[in-house]
Sequence to fold (246 residues):
Amino acid sequence: MPKKYGVKEKDLVVSHILHLLLTGKLRSGDRVDRNEIALGLGVSRVPIQEALVQLEHDGIVSTRYHRGAFVERFDEATVLEHHELDGLLNGIASARAATNPTPRILGQLDTLMRSLRTAKDSRAFTDLAAEYRRTVNDEYAGPRLHATIRASHNLIPRVFWTTYQNGRDDMLPFYEDETSAIHRRDPEAARAACVDRSYLMAQTMLAELFRRRVFTPPDDISRVVPGPLQVIPDADTICGEASLAL
Fold:
């Protein structure tokens, strides 16, 4: 595989392992084959080890002395948990923004909202949504919260949403709610908008993983929802046709 210049080799390995997980080529308990990765990506064992250290820290793999690295539990509940954490963590920063919104931040968010409303395709919307999150987090999240949010993104790959055709229609209402909450200084509503957005993202992603048979669809998806996440009306059908790329 040709090298991608401008991308750290460690990050390339992390993305590769996550891709193997999200396409069902690696499953819970599988051993990560370092030699195969080194050969396939054309990298040395050093960035592979660095990637495994990061993935172990993030709960994706575990290493066993003299035995190698193995995939941790990876199932519906794992995917939902990553999204739940993402919603809760971003909700902390958003609630802080609503507690103390500055005119500068409000102006930046209003500008981003105008662009989000008029985004022409999924990629443009995803890029703008990421900029929205950076704007809030850069201002209101400290280094530790920033790092934890980044770790929660592992199982929410960007390519998933740049190719999802309904992304704008599905996600825009949550950004509208969040921005409105920040304007009216309502931290709980801002937090709730982040949690609800992440929950719908989890349902959408699981729909594709079920469709691709990475996971076997359960009879009742509600049994794998971790914690008291609010169920969004009209969003409980998760096994229909989807259009996501992994």
About this structure: The chain has a mean pLDDT of 86.
